[in-house]
Write a structure and sequence with these properties.
seven-stranded mixed β-sheet; binds magnesium ion; binds adenosine-5'-diphosphate; about 160 residues; about 30% helix
């Protein structure tokens, strides 16, 4: 059985991201998977809103990483154009994940071996129309707690 929730409008996905920001801790790593247009960037925009990030958040496709100052620093990765795992060294991937911020990684399933063992994978599937199904796949004690807290917040907000 998979745990997760469904959104039915883009703004609901932003809201879900905002709720995620309410339960994250320093050094949390969240890997987003899902096709182009699934809603990965919208989710990150919500995280940014929840962390009080002032600047706009767009897909960092041409930078691979954009750091946004907030209540916790938001490390927004987009690995779409990344071809080799070695390139992750050039952008300081491992260091960034350990630096005390919150890392959210679009196309985070591309190089799973480069991710920490305990990370929250969020699989986004496109449904009918504006429906998006979010499946949470934790892989250790911290990401399990994070998934539980996030789900509880989503359910309280009426997302199921
Ligand atoms: N429930 C939903 N959640 C998120 N985006 C949605 C939803 N329904 C429709 N959309 C649309 O899908 C697109 C998602 O874009 P984006 O967040 O950039 O996706 P990705 O980063 O996964 O490529 C936007 O055009 C948005 O308006
Ligand atoms: Mg995107």
């Amino acid at each position: 059985m998979s745990i997760g929730f469904t959104t039915r409008a883009a703004e609901q996905t932003v809201r879900a991201g905002e709720l995620l920001a309410g339960v994250v801790r320093p050094c949390d790593v969240i890997a987003l998977t899902g096709d182009l247009g699934a809603g990965k960037t919208h989710l990150v925009q919500g995280v940014a809103r929840g962390l009080g990030v002032a600047e706009p958040v767009t897909s960092p496709t041409f930078n691979l990483l954009v750091v946004h100052p907030g209540a916790l620093p938001l490390y927004h990765f987009d690995l779409y154009r990344l071809e080799r795992a070695e390139e992750l060294d050039d952008i300081g991937f491992a260091e960034a994940l350990e630096s005390g911020g919150v890392a959210v990684i679009e196309w985070g399933d591309k190089f799973p071996a480069e991710l920490p063992a305990d990370r929250l994978v969020v699989r986004i599937r496109v449904g009918e129309g504006d429906e998006r199904r979010f499946e949470l796949v934790p892989s250790g004690p911290r990401s399990e707690a994070l998934a539980d807290d996030w789900l509880a917040a989503c359910q309280e907000a009426g997302l199921r």
